[in-house]
Amino acid sequence: MDYNNIIKNCEESSYLISMTPVEKIVEAGYYMGLNNQSKVLDLCCGYGEMLKIWCEAFSISGKGVDICTEFINKGNERISQNGLNNKISLVVENVKEYHDNEKYDVACLSGEDLFGGLKGTIRFLESFIKEDGKILIGTPYFHNKETPKELIKFQGELNTLEEIYDISKECGYLITHIAGCTQNEWERYVTWSARRDLKWLKNNPNHIDYQKKQEWIDYWYKMYFNYRKDYEGWALFVLEKI
Questions:
Q1: Same-domain pairing of 134 and 208
Q2: What residue numbers bound the domain in which 53 lies?
């Protein structure tokens, strides 16, 4: 068994703020036809790990944008350590106000609903792509329409897979690849978030919100155990113009 490879995958996964595993992100890059001529824009990029993975796998170049300074600083540090700063750049900026004169082969946005739903996200991303460019959207979804009200209260209204397909078609796009979640990645994501909250508790034992943070951790886990595990999914969807 290649233990070093397992450790490397754990490290990479800890910087992926999604439920799509590393190998499926590489798979998505393959089916999008990424190569050393490809330019990718990743909005709400987090640590920029998806760009880093595609740069290492396919030699793409790209830009990542995120409002969180902590994510961008750490992401740029990792990119520099791996000698990729001549190919990938990450910047701190509000994605909703972001403008770019460059046209990209792929424009991505994962995990955030900033534009009034899936249709708004598609319309925003298509303004950044070349005529034959592709859109990649990472989003949670409900497995069916019969979703418990407790989960809707926690997560808000989400589309089903059929609704994601229909909205994409309405916008003139076909879903050409789906990189779905795994139970292992869900558990990695849920515990990653809880570890961040636990770190906060340890660093702020006398904080006025200490009890609220403890209650949030309980709520976070129980929503996963009781509802999200059975009723919610996550995937990266590749969209191509029809």
A1: no
A2: 3-182+232-241
DSSP-derived letter for residue 159 is -
> CA nearest 26: which of 3, 6, 56, 1?
56
pLDDT truncated to tens, each residue of the chain (242 aa)?
A: 778 777 777 777 778 777 888 899 999 999 999 999 999 999 999 999 999 999 999 999 999 999 999 999 999 999 999 899 999 999 999 999 999 899 999 999 998 888 989 999 999 999 999 999 999 999 999 998 899 999 999 999 999 999 999 999 999 999 999 999 989 889 988 998 999 999 999 999 999 999 999 999 999 999 999 999 999 999 999 999 99
Separation of alpha carbons 237 and 81, rounded Å: 30
Are residues 161 and 83 part of one domain? yes
